[in-house]
Design brief:
The chain is α+β, with helices and mostly antiparallel strands and about 240 residues long. The protein is built from 5 helices and 15 strands. The strands form 3 sheets. Strands 1, 2, 3, 5, 7, 8, 12 and 13 form an 8-stranded mixed sheet that branches. A 5-stranded mixed sheet has the order 4-15-14-9-10, with no helix packed on it. A two-stranded antiparallel ribbon has the order 6-11. It is an enzyme of class 4 (lyase).
C-alpha cells in the first residue's frame, strides 16, 4: 500500500500522470485505506464527498483536504487541474461534532448537527492519464476523482429544502447542458449524511464541526475547457457561476 500512496502523492506533485497502479487495491477496504493515507499526507481534512449509485446502493466516500476547498469564489485557475469536470451539488456544513460511537446516529440526530446547506460545485479530476481509464477501485483510491470543492452561500431555510424536487439547470458558455429535477443518483442525500456519521467518517473519528459534506452530483459530470464559464441555476437555492481559466 505504501508504494501506491507514494505514487499518488508524486503524481500530484510532479503532474506526471499515472498509467496505472503497480499494486491495485484488492478491495474497497484497501482503497479506502489508501484514500485516508493520501489525505493525511495532504493536510487537514475539512470536507467529504459522498455518493451512491442508486437510492438503495451502499454509499461511497472520499475525504477532501483544506487545500482544495474554496468558499464563495466564482473563479479558479485552470492549472490546478488535468481535466475539468463540473458537477452542481448540494453540500451540508456541520455545526457540531458527531464523534464515532457504537450506537448509530439517527436521522434526526444527524440533521440536528447540520448548521447550514449550500449549493456547491465539485470539480472532478484524475491523477491517471485518462479520466475513467482505470478500474473502480483504483479511482476510489485516487480520492474518487476529486479535484476541488467550491462552496456557495448558505441558503436561508435549509430545512424547507426538498432535494428530491429541487431543479437544477447547468449551462456552459450560455448553452444548456443539463436540466434536471432531483437528479442525484443516490436519491435522498440525508441518507448519505447518516451513513457518513455512522460509517464513512469513522477512520477520521467521525464528522466534525465546520466540515462540509457534499452529497453527489445533481447534474452528472460535464467536462469543460479552460476559459469556459459554467452556471448552475437551482430551483430554490440560487445561482452559482464558475470560470476556470
Amino acid at each position: 500500500m505504501t508504494d501506491t500512496v507514494e505514487a499518488l502523492i508524486a503524481a500530484r506533485e510532479t503532474r506526471k500522470w499515472l498509467t496505472g497502479l503497480d499494486s491495485r487495491p484488492a478491495d474497497e477496504a484497501e482503497a479506502y485505506a489508501i484514500q485516508d493515507a493520501v489525505a493525511r499526507r495532504l493536510g487537514p481534512v475539512t470536507a467529504w464527498k459522498v455518493g451512491a449509485a442508486t437510492p438503495e446502493a451502499v454509499p461511497f466516500r472520499a475525504p477532501i483536504n483544506a487545500a482544495t476547498v474554496f468558499e464563495g469564489t466564482d473563479h479558479l485557475p485552470a492549472n490546478l487541474f488535468q481535466v475539468i469536470g463540473v458537477e452542481a451539488e448540494i453540500a451540508y456544513r456541520f455545526g457540531r461534532d458527531l464523534p464515532a460511537r457504537e450506537q448509530p446516529y439517527t436521522r434526526d440526530e444527524v440533521l440536528d448537527a447540520v448548521a447550514s446547506v449550500h449549493p456547491a460545485w465539485e470539480i472532478v479530476d484524475t491523477r491517471f492519464t485518462g479520466f475513467g481509464s482505470q478500474d473502480r477501485l483504483s479511482h476510489m483510491a485516487d480520492q474518487f476523482n476529486h479535484g476541488a470543492l467550491i462552496v456557495g452561500p448558505a441558503i436561508a431555510d435549509w430545512r424547507a429544502l426538498d432535494p428530491l424536487t429541487e431543479s437544477v439547470t447547468l449551462e456552459v458558455d450560455g448553452e444548456i447542458k443539463v436540466e434536471t429535477v432531483g437528479g442525484n443518483s443516490a436519491g435522498d442525500p440525508v441518507r448519505l449524511l447518516v451513513w457518513m456519521a455512522n460509517v464513512g467518517a469513522r477512520s477520521f473519528g467521525g464528522l466534525h464541526a465546520g466540515e462540509v459534506v457534499t452529497t453527489g452530483s445533481c447534474t452528472g459530470t460535464v467536462f469543460v475547457q479552460p476559459g469556459s464559464r459554467s452556471v448552475a441555476r437551482y430551483g430554490t437555492m440560487g445561482t452559482l457561476t464558475l470560470k476556470v481559466d
